[in-house]
Amino acid sequence: MSAIIQGLLVGIVFGVVLQRSRLCFNSAIRDVKFSHDNYLMKMALVGILIETIGFQAAAQFGWIKLSPIAFIPAAQIVGGFFFGMGMVLAGGCASGITYRIGEGYVTALVAAVFFGVTAAAVRGGALSFVNKWFGTAITTTNNPGGVYSANNGAVNLTIASWLNINPWIIAIISAVILLAVILFTKTTERKVSGLNWVWGGVAVGVIGIIGYLSQKTYALGITGGWINLLRATTGSLDPTKPVPYNWIGMLVFGIIIGSFIAALLSKEFKLRLPKDPKTFAKVALGGIFMGFGAGVAGGCNIGHILSGLPHLAISSIVATIFFVLGNWFMYWWLFERQRSKRS
User: CA 277, CA 78: separation in Å to the nearest integer?
Assistant: First the structure.
């Protein structure tokens, strides 16, 4: 089976799961602080727990080489903060706006297009010069267990490669901590018509593992997929140099298809337009912030949080922290600050 068909199939299943679970990292991060609601966050933690063990097992069996995202501190700090702010403005994370296109949200499509165009500009396009501002990756020659991919002997930093200890030790410690949080914290109650937080998290984690085994070079991601879709569809504006669709591009296309199918079957599809036209400008700005942030930081919420944290990658830990801080800051600025003034 060709790579693009595999990517499409994984994407369709992922789109169904995202639509039926309502998993959005913008909401998950925001809700924990401002609504004291941990429902979506615990769903995400279940997925990360499963992937933490699954990725390591797949690498130990020699099925994949673990490929954590490069650690460029300033890039993950600045990019992470911009991405976190952008999620709030766009009304969803990278995966959230993608699956909501399949549900009929026109604003999600606008945000996604601006997200993809800006990310493409940062990664090899007109804005690629900004990457020089953030320096080069910090790497190591340590490759404990030989499970990490290496470029001329250089390995991207994870906790295990940084400390040069058996990756299983770090994976098991991380898994135990995640399991304790999942089991011993009270879960916010929600009435759901689709997948609950447990089964939604399990499904997301399993799909992440399948994605890694299928793509080989990494697990799931959204940013690179939007870049590929836009570049391949437009032919890089040069028909003499066509850009082929790839696995991750088809993953993103599959998410939209899968979400559309799930929304139709659950009678939740509806073409939705905002009441205030100014919303289009807001979500477009959010898409630009997310595209810039993900382009600089080396990944979005799926690339760093869902796929990067199970590697225990230093880059993804730092990016996640600043995704959270950017999200909380922008939500406070747009909503909580105004409430405080009124009170």
Answer: 30
Residue 338 has a pLDDT of 72
C-alpha–C-alpha distance, residues 22 and 88, integer Å: 16
Distance CA 6, CA 88 (A): 32
* 72 CB-near residues (< 8 Å, 6+ apart): 134, 135, 136, 137, 138, 298, 315
Amino acid in the structure at residue 70 = A
pTM: 0.95
Computed over every residue of the chain, the mean pLDDT equals 95
> Are 118 and 325 spatial neighbours (Cβ–Cβ below 8 Å)?
no
State the Cα–Cα distance between residues 128 and 78, nearest whole angstrom.
15
Is the torsion defined by CA of 211, 181, 94, 198 positive or negative? positive
Per domain, the residue ranges of the chain are: 3-338
pLDDT tens digits along 111-136: 999 999 999 999 999 999 999 999 99
Tally of CB atoms within 10 A around 341: 7
DSSP string for residues in 127-140? TGGGGGGG---BEE
Whole-number Å distance between alpha carbons of 340 and 50: 40
